Amino acid sequence: QVQLVESGGGFVQSGGSLRLSCAASGSIFSIYTMGWYRQAPGKQRELVATITSGGNTNYEDSVKGRFTISRDNAKKMVYLQMNSLKPEDTAVYYCSIRAVLWVALGTANDYWGQGTQVTVSS
Protein backbone atom coordinates (compact mmCIF):
# COMPACT_ATOMS: atom_id res chain seq x y z
CA GLN A 1 0.00 0.00 0.00
CA VAL A 2 3.03 2.25 0.45
CA GLN A 3 6.07 2.27 -1.77
CA LEU A 4 9.24 4.18 -1.03
CA VAL A 5 11.82 4.33 -3.78
CA GLU A 6 15.27 5.74 -3.05
CA SER A 7 17.70 6.95 -5.66
CA GLY A 8 20.94 8.90 -5.89
CA GLY A 9 23.34 6.59 -4.13
CA GLY A 10 26.67 5.68 -5.60
CA PHE A 11 30.41 5.82 -5.29
CA VAL A 12 32.18 9.07 -4.49
CA GLN A 13 35.59 10.15 -3.28
CA SER A 14 36.13 11.65 0.13
CA GLY A 15 35.05 15.29 0.14
CA GLY A 16 32.52 14.75 -2.61
CA SER A 17 28.77 15.19 -2.65
CA LEU A 18 25.70 13.12 -3.35
CA ARG A 19 22.00 13.87 -3.27
CA LEU A 20 19.59 11.15 -2.25
CA SER A 21 15.93 11.25 -3.20
CA CYS A 22 13.00 9.22 -1.96
CA ALA A 23 9.59 9.12 -3.58
CA ALA A 24 6.59 7.91 -1.61
CA SER A 25 3.51 6.54 -3.32
CA GLY A 26 0.41 4.56 -2.49
CA SER A 27 -2.79 5.18 -0.64
CA ILE A 28 -1.28 7.82 1.63
CA PHE A 29 -3.58 10.23 3.42
CA SER A 30 -0.94 12.19 5.29
CA ILE A 31 2.79 12.04 5.93
CA TYR A 32 4.14 13.20 9.24
CA THR A 33 7.86 12.73 9.71
CA MET A 34 10.16 11.79 6.85
CA GLY A 35 13.69 10.70 7.43
CA TRP A 36 16.89 9.04 6.38
CA TYR A 37 18.65 6.27 8.24
CA ARG A 38 21.79 4.34 7.43
CA GLN A 39 23.35 1.02 8.21
CA ALA A 40 27.02 0.31 7.80
CA PRO A 41 28.38 -3.26 7.61
CA GLY A 42 28.38 -4.85 11.04
CA LYS A 43 26.58 -1.94 12.65
CA GLN A 44 23.03 -1.19 13.67
CA ARG A 45 20.81 1.08 11.65
CA GLU A 46 21.10 4.65 12.84
CA LEU A 47 19.20 7.86 12.31
CA VAL A 48 20.81 10.35 9.95
CA ALA A 49 18.21 13.10 9.68
CA THR A 50 14.49 13.68 10.01
CA ILE A 51 12.10 16.41 8.96
CA THR A 52 8.57 17.00 10.20
CA SER A 53 5.62 18.08 8.09
CA GLY A 54 6.22 21.57 9.41
CA GLY A 55 9.84 21.59 8.31
CA ASN A 56 11.57 21.05 11.65
CA THR A 57 14.78 19.11 11.18
CA ASN A 58 16.93 16.89 13.33
CA TYR A 59 20.40 15.57 12.52
CA GLU A 60 22.77 12.99 13.89
CA ASP A 61 25.75 14.82 15.35
CA SER A 62 28.33 13.52 12.88
CA VAL A 63 26.45 14.88 9.86
CA LYS A 64 25.51 18.30 11.20
CA GLY A 65 26.80 21.02 8.92
CA ARG A 66 27.44 18.55 6.10
CA PHE A 67 24.05 17.02 5.33
CA THR A 68 20.77 18.80 4.63
CA ILE A 69 17.36 17.14 4.63
CA SER A 70 14.43 18.66 2.78
CA ARG A 71 11.01 17.58 1.59
CA ASP A 72 8.42 18.39 -1.03
CA ASN A 73 5.03 17.69 0.48
CA ALA A 74 3.14 18.05 -2.78
CA LYS A 75 5.33 15.46 -4.47
CA LYS A 76 5.63 13.26 -1.37
CA MET A 77 9.39 13.33 -1.66
CA VAL A 78 12.27 13.70 0.75
CA TYR A 79 15.84 14.55 -0.11
CA LEU A 80 19.22 14.32 1.56
CA GLN A 81 21.99 16.55 0.28
CA MET A 82 25.28 15.13 1.47
CA ASN A 83 28.40 17.28 1.21
CA SER A 84 31.95 16.81 2.43
CA LEU A 85 31.44 13.07 2.48
CA LYS A 86 33.78 10.93 4.54
CA PRO A 87 34.62 7.22 4.33
CA GLU A 88 32.72 6.70 7.58
CA ASP A 89 29.54 7.82 5.79
CA THR A 90 29.69 4.60 3.76
CA ALA A 91 26.48 2.69 4.38
CA VAL A 92 23.15 1.66 2.94
CA TYR A 93 20.84 4.64 3.31
CA TYR A 94 17.15 4.04 3.96
CA CYS A 95 14.24 6.38 3.54
CA SER A 96 11.47 6.19 6.14
CA ILE A 97 8.15 7.91 6.61
CA ARG A 98 5.51 7.97 9.30
CA ALA A 99 2.20 8.13 7.50
CA VAL A 100 -1.52 7.62 7.74
CA LEU A 101 -3.21 5.64 5.00
CA TRP A 102 -6.70 6.16 3.61
CA VAL A 103 -7.63 2.66 4.68
CA ALA A 104 -6.63 3.27 8.29
CA LEU A 105 -7.32 6.89 9.14
CA GLY A 106 -6.19 7.82 12.62
CA THR A 107 -3.39 5.27 12.73
CA ALA A 108 0.13 6.29 11.82
CA ASN A 109 2.72 3.67 10.91
CA ASP A 110 6.33 3.67 9.80
CA TYR A 111 7.30 2.58 6.31
CA TRP A 112 10.74 1.87 4.88
CA GLY A 113 12.39 1.86 1.49
CA GLN A 114 14.72 -0.80 0.16
CA GLY A 115 17.84 1.28 0.66
CA THR A 116 20.50 2.77 -1.58
CA GLN A 117 24.21 2.16 -1.22
CA VAL A 118 26.55 5.08 -0.60
CA THR A 119 30.27 4.32 -0.78
CA VAL A 120 32.88 6.95 0.01
CA SER A 121 36.49 6.18 -0.81
CA SER A 122 39.41 7.68 1.04
How does this model look, in words?
This protein is mainly beta and 122 residues long. The protein contains no helices and eleven strands. The mean pLDDT is 96.
Helix content: under 10%
Largest sheet: 7 strands, mixed
Please mark out the parts with pLDDT under 50 across 5 or more consecutive residues, or reply none: none
> What structural class results from the helix and strand content?
mainly beta
User: Strand-and-helix sequence, N→C?
Assistant: EEEEEEEEEEE
DSSP summary: helix tally: 0
Radius of gyration equals 14 Å
- Please, what is the average pLDDT? 96
Write down the overall geometry: elongated
Distance between the termini: 40 Å
Q: Based on DSSP secondary structure assignment, what is the total number of beta strands? A: 11
- Beta fraction: over 45%
Helices and strands in order, then pairings?
Elements: E1 2-7, E2 10-13, E3 18-26, E4 28-39, E5 46-51, E6 57-59, E7 67-72, E8 77-82, E9 91-101, E10 108-112, E11 116-121
Parallel strand pairs: 2-11
Antiparallel strand pairs: 1-3, 3-8, 4-5, 4-9, 5-6, 7-8, 9-10, 9-11
